[in-house]
Q: What sequence folds into this?
């Protein structure tokens, strides 16, 4: 747009002058629109991030005050069993959760794409609904359902002649949390996939059917490849979300006595260090390390999937 | 035409019966927590712990009594939490949306110097986990004397890089450059072009970003939990979380608190559920913006 409209069959000098004025104007107006956000971005993202990095290079002791220790806090973090256990937990949790969520949300979206009834439309809305519930309240609701003193687990399993599982116990808390997060987010992911499916040209299905493709083949060979960008987007959301897991375990801590320690996830550990123990330097180091780990993981993932039309392409 | 589509619909219904049954089971799963909360917020402590079925009502249904308890407990602090949540969600959400709309428009429609670099930084920041920012922001704010004020919750909410990204990709397609040039040729200034020509075209994305920002700040927990110590400033999420901690800590004395917590959970989700049900034609289309590209 810049070049073509400015190009007149004229002598070179005024044209160049004209173009420069346009470029200057684009600079000025463009920055005017971006500036308010840029200020907030610098004040609330760049500054805290560098401040965290700065703080993480110091150690404060009761005796001896604050000292510059370079990477000691990071060395401490990456040899700290509590922090490493938390990291392993979120990695194991993501490894199970993300495929599970993808399967559930993709499955539901494919069903809703195939079935066009009023009941299906109603279901779509209701399955999305948990997204509107704060994570804290969602965790609380499931905490009630899991509860031995007033939950229905014993009842439901009793009807089949089984003993109710205790999802708040140390052994099953992994699955208890898995269920809560899947319940909370599957509907949101489903809507994103469903919208992508609606964007596919239906004549493709007709053509495939004429060529003798079954419903399954249409799903696997046409629908899923065409919605790959939506799937990548969801994977990124899920990855960023699970690695910074905090709300649900923090809320269930009180209900699940003993099953969730205060260093259960890296985020909870950072919170404990900073707010319960007033160890801001170490808390900052954990926060920064966690942020860096998430950033690198997501970046590697984006790099691997960039060919498939990722959302950053 | 109508008979054809009607007959196709009925074959569709018959053919997909197994899928619909499966959908029915999924529906039960997704709705069970809501059902439990609706049923059990009608009960008092005796009904809750009485050993009767927790998936069905007891003989005395006392929503009103529980509501009175909820809104009078600790001098009616629950109503205050709801108002706080609404304040944080709307001021933060609207602010974040305004910033995202202007920045997204700037990135999409102007070739200014430093644009590519700034946009790359923006995209990178989408991947920075927001919770990693909570502790350093807290320390920064505490030095400025901003912690334990409403600004400690509202200001960080204004930051929404993903919103900017959504606005950018939507605006790039929805607002043609030719139209902007035509407006400029007609003598409209940049501000007027933006307000009168571009904004109406950006409406679906604006509604989406607004909805996502409001929901994110309404649902926020970690940030206010870290920033606020005065419980009169709590949003409803932190407030109920605190009650829940108290009720769990003293098992015997906390039994009456549980019915307040259960009804409190139900009441706190009603505003967003209503918002989503009434605005569905906006968000259902809008959520696809990031995925279709």
A:
């Amino acid at each position: 747009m810049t070049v073509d409209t400015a190009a007149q069959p004229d002598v070179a000098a005024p044209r160049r002058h004209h173009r420069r004025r346009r470029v200057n104007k684009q600079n000025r107006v463009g920055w005017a629109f971006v500036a308010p956000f840029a200020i907030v971005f610098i004040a609330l993202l760049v500054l805290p991030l560098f401040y965290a990095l700065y703080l993480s290079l110091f150690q404060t002791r009761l005796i001896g005050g604050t000292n510059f220790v370079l990477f000691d806090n990071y060395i401490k973090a990456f040899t700290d069993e509590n922090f490493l256990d938390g990291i392993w937990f979120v990695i194991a949790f993501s490894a199970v959760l993300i495929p599970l969520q993808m399967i559930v949300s993709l499955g539901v979206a494919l069903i809703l794409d195939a079935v066009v009834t009023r009941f299906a439309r109603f279901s779509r809305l209701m399955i999305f609904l948990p997204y509107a519930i704060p994570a804290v309240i969602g965790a609380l609701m499931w905490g009630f359902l899991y509860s031995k003193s007033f939950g229905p687990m014993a009842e439901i399993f009793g009807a089949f002649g089984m003993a109710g599982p205790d999802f708040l116990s140390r052994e099953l808390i992994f699955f208890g949390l898995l269920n809560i997060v899947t319940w909370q987010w599957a509907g949101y992911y489903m809507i994103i996939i469903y919208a992508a499916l609606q964007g596919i040209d239906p004549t493709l299905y007709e053509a495939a059917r004429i060529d003798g493709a079954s419903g399954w083949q249409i799903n696997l060979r046409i629908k899923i490849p065409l919605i790959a960008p939506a799937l990548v987007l969801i994977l990124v959301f899920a990855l960023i979300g699970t690695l910074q897991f905090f709300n649900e375990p923090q809320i269930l801590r009180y209900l699940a006595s003993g099953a969730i320690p205060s260093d259960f996830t890296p985020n909870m550990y950072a919170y404990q260090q900073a707010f319960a123990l007033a160890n801001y330097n170490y808390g900052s180091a954990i926060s920064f390390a966690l942020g860096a780990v998430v950033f690198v993981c997501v970046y590697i993932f984006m790099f691997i999937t960039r060919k498939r039309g990722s959302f950053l392409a | 035409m109508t008979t054809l589509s009607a007959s196709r619909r009925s074959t569709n219904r018959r053919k997909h019966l197994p899928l619909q049954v499966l959908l029915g089971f999924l529906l039960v799963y997704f709705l069970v927590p809501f059902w439990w909360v609706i049923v059990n917020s009608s009960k008092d402590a005796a009904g809750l712990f009485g050993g009767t079925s927790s998936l069905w009502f007891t003989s005395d249904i006392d929503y009103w009594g529980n509501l009175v308890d909820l809104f009078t407990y600790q001098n009616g602090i629950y109503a205050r939490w709801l108002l706080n949540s609404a304040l944080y969600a709307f001021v933060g959400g609207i602010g974040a949306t305004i910033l995202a709309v202007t920045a997204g428009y700037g990135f999409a429609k102007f070739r200014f110097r430093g644009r590519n670099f700034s946009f790359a930084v923006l995209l990178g920041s989408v991947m920075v986990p927001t919770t990693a920012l909570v502790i350093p922001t807290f320390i920064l704010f505490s030095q400025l004397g901003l912690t334990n004020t409403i600004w400690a919750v509202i200001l960080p909410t204004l930051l929404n890089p993903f919103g900017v990204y959504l606005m950018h990709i939507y605006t790039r397609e929805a607002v043609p450059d030719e139209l902007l040039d035509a407006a400029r040729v007609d003598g409209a200034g940049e501000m007027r072009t933006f307000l009168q020509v571009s904004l109406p075209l950006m409406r679906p994305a604006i509604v989406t970003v607004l909805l996502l920002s409001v929901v994110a700040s309404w649902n926020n927990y970690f940030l206010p939990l870290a920033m606020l110590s005065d419980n009169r400033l709590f949003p409803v999420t932190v407030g109920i979380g605190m009650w829940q901690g108290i009720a769990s800590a003293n098992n015997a004395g906390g039994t009456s608190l549980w019915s307040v917590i259960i009804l409190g959970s139900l009441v706190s989700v009603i505003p967003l559920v209503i918002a989503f049900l009434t605005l569905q034609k906006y968000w259902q289309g809008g959520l696809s913006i990031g995925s279709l590209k």
Notes: Chain B has 17 helices and no strands. The CA atoms of residues 81 and 164 of chain B lie 30 Å apart. Chain B has a mean pLDDT of 86. The two ends of chain B are 34 Å apart (CA to CA).
